Amino acid sequence: MTIASGPVTQLAWVVEDIGAAEEFHRAHFGAGPWTRMPDVRFGPEEATFRGEPADFTAHVSLGYAGDLQLELIQPVAGESIYTEFLARSGPGLHHLCFETDDLDAAVARARAAGLDVPQQGVMAGGLMSFAYVDGAAWGAPYVELAQLTDDMRAFYAAIKNGG
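Above: the chain sequence. Below: its structure as tokens.
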């Protein structure tokens, strides 16, 4: 039984300087335009990190390369898989994302397969739920599983269309 299937909908990098990363991806790969969301906070009511209530903040920027969404994440405060990644590896490709219709079931399948789910939560007032599966066991980056509402899909479409 698969945890998630379907196309990869996003590639994401954890970076130390979100502005420089936006410019790099624009100049070298034609990605963008970028929609930056500064100081996105995940508090204990929205997220968990390593099984405990989380409290972290990150700058997030979204853009597109063709139909593929690109995400840049710059940790600002608190502990998360993003700060762990920077400390361990420095900036770089952090995760790929699959959309799922049932996040709880996908997380249960991941755990049943013995895979670590180190961080999960909700954002944008519940418009998106997410969980990260640690890909280290098979030499991969994290895999994000995301369940989106129609309103979040519309937000992403607006970004893709330059707005």
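Residues 8-160 form a domain with the 2,3-Dihydroxybiphenyl 1,2-Dioxygenase; domain 1 fold (CATH 3.10.180.10).
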